[in-house]
Specification:
single chain, alpha+beta, 8 helices, 41% helix
């Protein structure tokens, strides 16, 4: 769903549905949202810097209307899509707000959440809540804000062509309680204090670079952050040197041949646009 400037400003003051999965970290230290992490959300709330729109976002907006129409036909009911009627703030916990893609117009309303994805392997074959964890968190956040009990995830899967499916996710109070706890903890410990979380992702660096800097000002920080960066930077530079040495040895062994065969496969050497590459 495309958002208005007013909605964007409101998002700075609330935790939205699309923020939720990024705040949860798995046992491997990775965000449950593969596209952003806690630092991404923090940068958006504290500095007003959001990830730039990408092809996946544009594709999702492009197919949203078509998937809403698909849902109407499959469900046999009308769907509310008026943006003014799709905005919800949780009454009991007003920190949380949601802008829905739609909801069914029937005696017992159900949320409509639209998705377009090429990562079909993450989605189950049944029509139950066999959906990625990040989607479970997103729609439960919406259930929290709207007070509804069921969400229908309408998805276009890039799987053996294109496949349209509808998954049903029923309200789970335990998940909702986790969302409230994690959201309030993040807001109180990081947004209100403006202390960034330490759970960074590789893509966060481009976002952080876009924060507007104030000339001739200096921040007091934990010196350990500088030491860790210097150590990682040295490791990277050493690895790049070792990689070049290994590549030189490899190419010397290949000699004038185009490539070589080994027990585990083949590789070839090319010069493409002036750059050496191994294929």
């Amino acid at each position: 769903m495309s958002i208005t400037p007013e909605q964007k400003e409101s998002r700075r003051n609330h935790i939205g549905s699309s923020d939720m999965a990024a705040l949860f970290i798995d046992s491997d230290g990775k965000s449950l949202d593969p596209f952003k992490g806690p630092l991404t959300v923090w940068t958006s709330k504290v500095h007003g810097v959001d990830p730039e729109e990408n092809a996946a976002m544009r594709r999702g907006n492009r197919y949203e209307h078509a998937l809403i129409e698909f849902a109407k036909e499959e469900l046999g009911c009308a769907i509310e899509t008026d943006p003014d009627k799709l905005h919800f703030v949780c009454k009991e916990h007003p920190l949380f707000e949601a802008n829905l893609d739609g909801y069914t117009i029937e005696d017992k309303r159900r949320i409509i959440e639209v998705k377009t994805t090429g990562m079909a392997q993450e989605w189950g074959d049944s029509s139950d809540d066999d959906v990625p964890s990040r989607v479970i968190l997103q729609v439960h956040h919406q259930l929290l804000c709207s007070g509804m009990d069921t969400a229908l995830v309408v998805v276009l899967l890039g799987k053996f062509g294109l496949l349209e499916k509808i998954y049903t996710v029923n309200r789970n109070e335990e998940i909702i309680n986790y969302i409230i706890q994690r959201g309030e903890e993040f807001w109180n410990n990081h947004v209100l204090t403006k202390i960034p979380p330490t759970d960074a992702m590789p893509g966060d660096i481009e976002l952080i670079k876009r924060i507007q800097r104030v000339p001739e000002t200096w921040a007091e920080i934990d010196e350990e952050l500088v030491r860790v960066w210097q150590e990682k930077n040295r490791t990277r530079l050493d690895a790049e040197k070792e990689e070049k040495i290994a590549l030189a040895s490899l190419l010397a062994a290949v000699g004038t041949a185009e490539g070589a065969r080994t027990s585990w496969g083949t590789f070839t050497y090319f010069t493409q646009k002036g750059a050496d590459s191994i294929d």
